[in-house]
Design brief:
The chain is of the alpha+beta class and about 200 residues long. Helices cover about 30% and strands about 30% of the residues. The protein has helices at about 1-20, 85-100, 155-160, 165-175; strands spanning about 30-35, 50, 70-80, 105-115, 120-130, 135-145, 150, 185. Strand 4 (about 105-115) and strand 5 (about 120-130) form a beta hairpin.
């Protein structure tokens, strides 16, 4: 069971790692230090948040807002009722709407379980944002639970270490516990984005 939970944790946390390391307009660019505790994006107050329910993809034609702020429900990632398939089918559109944005903020709420109503193998809330005009980005992983039990960053790192040392290091460096959990850092400026 520990091996299964570790694999699920590693797979689910990969999404957080990808978003933290590769802001949309800066393919494969790493967020750089010095790191500071997570804070919401400076443009948060000027955003209209677009909410998407379980398995609901944003329109393929995109959303014209920039900054674009979205909130995705991802609590129905299940095996027995097709929730995992609906989740996977919606993900490409979620990425496509983010890629062209200079300012982007995604909040999401994850839960992976075998069947509806069963204890989640893993559950967490995430916040990921970037501002390419200001050269800033931030990521936060909060409320992490494995098998219904709250897990801190050291415990999460120990679970994924046998499968991915990079993810384990990510948890140790960036998934800080307590208030201000997460991190913010710098990314390369995009000269085509407003400052």
């Amino acid at each position: 069971m520990r091996r299964l939970v570790a694999l699920v944790l590693a797979s689910a946390a990969a999404a957080t790692l990808v978003l933290a390391e590769a802001p949309a307009g800066a393919a494969a660019v790493h967020v750089k230090g010095p790191f500071q505790p997570y804070f919401p994006p400076p443009f948060a107050t000027s955003c209209t948040v677009h909410y998407f329910g379980e398995g609901v993809a944003p329109p393929l034609s995109g959303i014209p807002d920039d900054p674009l702020c979205v909130d995705y429900a991802k609590r129905d990632i299940t095996v027995t009722d097709g929730g995992a398939i609906r989740f996977l089918l919606a993900e490409p559109a979620r990425v496509l709407v983010a890629v062209p944005k200079c300012q982007y903020w995604q909040q999401d709420h994850w839960s992976v379980q075998f069947a509806p109503g069963s204890v989640a193998l893993i559950r967490w809330d995430g916040n990921y944002w970037w501002d390419e005009g200001a050269g800033q980005a931030g990521a936060q992983l909060a409320n992490l639970r494995v098998g219904g039990i709250a897990v801190n960053s050291r415990q999460a790192a120990a679970l994924v270490a046998p499968f991915s040392r990079k993810l384990a290091q990510y948890f140790l460096e960036f998934a800080k516990d307590g208030p201000g959990a997460g991190y913010a850092g710098t990314i390369p400026l995009n000269p085509f984005c407003p400052k």
